[in-house]
Amino acid sequence: MALTSLVVCADESTSRLLRHILENLGISVEHSKAGTDARARLNHKRFDSILIDCENEAEATEVVRAARACSRHRNALVVAIAGKENNVRQMFAAGTNFVLYKPVSEDRAWSSLRAARSLMKRERRRSGRVAVHTQAALDYSNVENVPATLIDLSGEGTAVQSERKLPPDCKVYFQFALPGHAALIRLSGEVVWQDAGGRVGMRFVTVPTASRRLLSEWLKENVASTAVRVPILPGIVAPIAKTTVPVSGPSAGQADNGVARLRASPGNRRAQSRHACRLGADVYRMGVAVPTRCSLTDISSGGCYVEMSMPFPPGTSVEIIVRTHHVKLRTQGVVQSTHPSFGMGVKLVLTTPEDHDQVQSLIHLLAQSANDSHVGPIPDPWTRQD
């Protein structure tokens, strides 16, 4: 079920930017220009997050208090868009979780709202989970083919038993065959919770049409007799707004002998830290002048991950161009791994000092943007409050 957000902001440019980012994060958006309209919407509909401009601080505070007084918004995330003149302490006292400072830059908003999304309560299940026991293979930012067992399954998510702790803030690509079916289901998801016993709760992010059809048909056949509800367990996933993403084996809490998805050679297991991002990019096959528009979702000095619906085959030489307000990166690489309908891992080929400097400039910018984001006190979102 899609996450929903209410943006309360009279400034058109800021509202447009926030809506663009939220929708790209898979969150549906409603917009109010005034506090009276916002309170009316809060009385009639549930939102997972509320973003409110504090230009009129008294009105913004009333909206936050009204939301917290309503049972359906008691656990919603509230993000205040504040300037230097606003009393941030008072906003936190009213029930604000995050503060996004003005002027609102795109990079900072991406970082903060990704952190907010990771903390939204996602387990609002309209249908029960179906108990299942089937093997799956997981790929994520620096490892591939991690064995796991599906414990339960719904149309929106799953619980798995994994041999490894998964990174909290990256996509997980996995495939599995349902009992009684030979065709593989391939999809991507993100971590909602983890426990010390290796169980991981996942919310589906992207499910291709063919996989969605197989999954829906199987659930219809099985949900009536075996529907179960698995409680959310206290998670160990931390907010990500002020940190970069550690993904090498030990620093990510993973085994040292994990097979790196992006590696210089089969025997060279990568140890560089990977930095999560969401940047528009153009990817060219070598010798082809027509670019493919896509998204860069993480990068290190050794490789990157590119999301695109039709990734290139492993071994393809590519050129990647990324532009931000501060940096333009043009680099070359070779496709190492491919996930159909999702994207591909690319090993960067850095042959000159200038190539290394360009990549390091982008990584430094991403790290600086993450460290600049401000996160306020946050309630524990991982414990179910029925």
Explain what this protein looks like in three dimensions:
It is a single chain. The protein is an alpha+beta fold. It has 3 domains: 3-119, Response regulator (Rossmann fold, 3-Layer(aba) Sandwich); 129-228, Beta Barrel (Thrombin, subunit H); 270-372, Thrombin, subunit H, CATH 2.40.10.220. The protein contains 7 helices and 18 strands. It has a 6-stranded antiparallel beta barrel with strand order 6-7-8-11-10-9. A 6-stranded antiparallel beta barrel has the order 13-14-15-18-17-16. Helix 2 packs parallel to helix 3. It starts with a strand and ends in a 14-residue tail after the last helix. The relative contact order is 0.11. Mean pLDDT is 75; it is low at 121-127, 225-271 and 373-386.
Would you kindly provide a brief summary of this structure?
The protein has 386 residues and is α+β, with helices and mostly antiparallel strands.
| CATH architect. name of the largest domain | 3-Layer(aba) Sandwich
Structural class determined from secondary elements: alpha+beta
Radius of gyration: 21 Å
Helix and strand sequence:
EHEHEHEHEHEEEEEEHEEEEEEEH
Report mean pLDDT, rounded to a whole number.
Answer: 75
Number of strands: 18
Q: Can you tell me the residue ranges where pLDDT is under 50 for at least 5 consecutive residues?
A: 121-127, 225-271, 373-386
Mind telling me the CATH class of the largest domain?
A: Alpha Beta
- The CATH topology annotation of the largest domain reads as Rossmann fold
Q: Biggest sheet, strands in spatial order?
A: 6-7-8-11-10-9
Number of helices: 7
Q: For this structure, what is the CATH homologous superfamily of the largest domain?
A: Response regulator
Helix content: 10-25%
Described by the principal axes of the CA atoms, the overall outline is globular
Largest sheet: 6 strands, antiparallel, barrel
Strand content: 25-35%
End-to-end separation in angstroms reads 18 Å
Number of domains: 3
